[in-house]
Write a structure and sequence with these properties.
Low-confidence stretches: none
Strand order of the largest sheet: 5-2-1-6-7-11-10
Number of domains: 2
Largest sheet: 7 strands, mixed
CATH architecture of the largest domain: 3-Layer(aba) Sandwich
Structural class: alpha/beta
Mean pLDDT: 93
Radius of gyration: 22 Å
Distance between the termini: 39 Å
CATH class of the largest domain: Alpha Beta
């Protein structure tokens, strides 16, 4: 049985220099939470000091299930939570499940006490609801970015892995909290400690905050032709206002026919079909994972009308956007 206080493995439950509270919502994602937690434990272990202790907090102090269906116990409810220096907010899988006014009020109170507050994935939306991200550059997971911008069009939302300003951090999620926490450890203590933690985690390259969330296009699609790669980048950057094949070809000083040959050779499809597939994939993701209206999704994916979007969607997936949304909600 693991002792509650064991520096040999980095487990500290009391008398630490920094007290960290992890708020975990029902259906939170385990990966970003663990990526944020483990650097703290390992910092204790390699330093042989009580640097960080942590506790888990839920709305009512009861256990919650993560998105992978693992049940996670809580140490405290919001009401009974102890004094903390750092609050990490791991929101629910679906953004529209953030509904607790009690949670928002508690986060605002924590902010007033100069607590460092970190939002992971949909936790960034929770911080926005609490009014903590006004006039601040922020980020969120790339899958949620469109919906975030739909709610808060005035916010400056980047595609970087994390952002920090004053004592507010927003993190895209996935494995990115690991890099963010290593940065935090370096700022609080020293680079040598952060480097030792990274080595223990087999993490040879600590990414800085400005690195992109998604893999470089060259490795993602597995090709290296410069024109095709630049064209894909243009396509991905112009989903809401699509460029025509002629416009794409003109930007590279080649004919439409030449561009079509390149796409057929390297991607086994045409530029128009590739473009349409990306737009429909984004539409499907927004239908399944967001609360955006179908009219808003049609606009966000570059279709001139809901009818046009519905026709194309049904042709590709054999189901209408309305029925796809209903199925996603029911399941």
């Amino acid at each position: 049985m693991i002792k509650t206080q064991n520096l040999d493995i980095g487990l500290v439950k009391k008398n630490a220099q920094h007290k960290v509270g992890f708020y975990i919502a029902e259906s939170f994602n385990s990966l970003p939470m663990v990526a944020a937690l483990e650097p703290l434990r390992i910092a204790n272990r390699v330093s042989k000091k009580r640097l960080f202790q942590w506790s888990f907090i839920t709305d009512n102090g009861k256990a919650v299930k993560a998105s992978n269906d693992i049940l996670h116990q809580a140490d405290f409810s919001i009401e009974s939570s102890p004094e903390i220096d750092i609050l990490v907010v791991a929101g629910p899988f679906f953004i529209n499940d953030i509904k607790s006014d009690h949670l928002i009020d508690w986060i605002q109170r924590q902010h007033k006490t100069s607590t460092t507050i970190i939002g992971l994935e949909s936790g960034c939306h929770t911080l926005a609801l609490a009014g903590l991200l006004e006039d601040k550059k922020c980020t969120t997971h790339w899958e949620h970015r469109e919906e975030y911008k739909n709610y808060w069009p005035e916010h400056d939302v980047s595609n970087d892995i994390y952002e920090m300003e004053d004592n507010i951090f927003t993190c895209s999620g996935g494995a990115a909290p690991l890099d963010m926490m290593l940065y935090l450890i370096e700022q609080i203590y020293e680079h040598e400690l952060a480097a030792s933690v990274a080595d223990c985690m087999i993490h040879p390259h600590i990414r800085n905050s400005g690195e992109p969330q998604k893999m470089d296009i060259q490795y993602r699609v597995g090709i290296n032709h410069p024109i095709v790669l630049e064209c894909i980048q243009l396509i991905e950057s112009n989903i809401e206002q699509p460029l025509t094949p002629d416009e794409l070809a003109n930007l590279f000083g080649i004919s439409k026919r030449q561009l079509e040959r390149l796409f057929l050779r390297y991607l086994k499809t045409s530029p128009a079909r590739y473009y349409l597939t990306l737009r429909l994939e984004k539409g499907r993701m927004l239908l399944e994972d967001s609360n955006m209206l179908i009219t808003e999704i049609a606009k966000a994916t570059g279709f001139r009308s809901v009818a046009h979007f519905s026709t194309r969607y049904h042709s590709s997936y054999g189901i209408t956007p309305k029925d796809a949304r209903a199925y996603a909600m029911a399941n």
